Amino acid sequence: MKSRIIGLTGGIASGKSFVSQLIKEQGFHVIDADEVVHKLQKKGGKLYRVLVDFFGETILQSDGEIDRPKLSSLFFSNQEVKQKVSQLQDDIIRETLAFERECASQNHEIFFMDIPLLFERHYESSVDEVWLVYVDKQTQLNRLMARDHYSEEEAMKRITSQESLEAKKKKADVIIDNSGSKEVTKQKVLTLLKQIFS
């Protein structure tokens, strides 16, 4: 059985998690790259050691787990640091996602891989097609500032650390415009999921 693998991606605050949740609710298997990374960064995980070796124990909470907001601010504070840490983590994440994909291929005819940095990390060859959750830049900025209480500068730093949604739009096979209400987006997603089987 050859599985059909659909890559799901977006940009920060584009609503990708909402779309991913809808897909799961319809009974589809979704490999969530963020969840995979969180597990790997937990105490005893493969990435935990890598990050503590790199940043030192200042990134740890009192319970010994990684302080995620602190890690995030250190990660985004310096382009060189960001690049080095990405390189250190990349092989481990890639290997784990490949293993998850292999397992899912044994059990699911169609499944999704939710990968935020799908284009930036060149995962296109790991999937058969790419669905992009899209919003225009102003909407993205407003939503990110409202969601995470960032200043405009902090929000822009995070948005520009990823490839722009306009650039991703040109590479994706399916565009899910999430600029409107959640209900409108939900109907678009449900229609797309029905078409998979037609």
Give a brief rundown of this model:
The chain has 198 residues and is an alpha/beta fold. The chain has helices at 16-25, 33-41, 46-55, 68-76, 79-107, 137-148, 152-160, 165-171, 182-196, and strands at 4-9, 29-32, 110-114, 129-134, 174-177.
Strand content: 5-15%
Distance between the termini: 18 Å
How large is the count of helical segments?
A: 9
Poorly predicted runs: none
Notes on the structure:
With 198 residues, the chain is of the alpha/beta class. It has 9 helices and 5 strands, in the order βαβααααββαααβα. The chain has helices at 16-25, 33-41, 46-55, 68-76, 79-107, 137-148, 152-160, 165-171, 182-196; strands spanning 4-9, 29-32, 110-114, 129-134, 174-177. Strands 2-3-1-4-5 form a 5-stranded parallel β-sheet, sandwiched between helices. Helix 1 (16-25) packs across helix 9. The longest helix has 29 residues, at 79-107. It is globular. It starts with a strand and ends with a helix.
Core attributes:
198 residues; alpha/beta; 13% strand; globular
What's the structural blueprint in terms of helices and strands?
Blueprint: E1 4-9, H1 16-25, E2 29-32, H2 33-41, H3 46-55, H4 68-76, H5 79-107, E3 110-114, E4 129-134, H6 137-148, H7 152-160, H8 165-171, E5 174-177, H9 182-196
Parallel strand pairs: 1-3, 1-4, 2-3, 4-5
Helix pairs in contact: 1-9, 3-5, 6-7
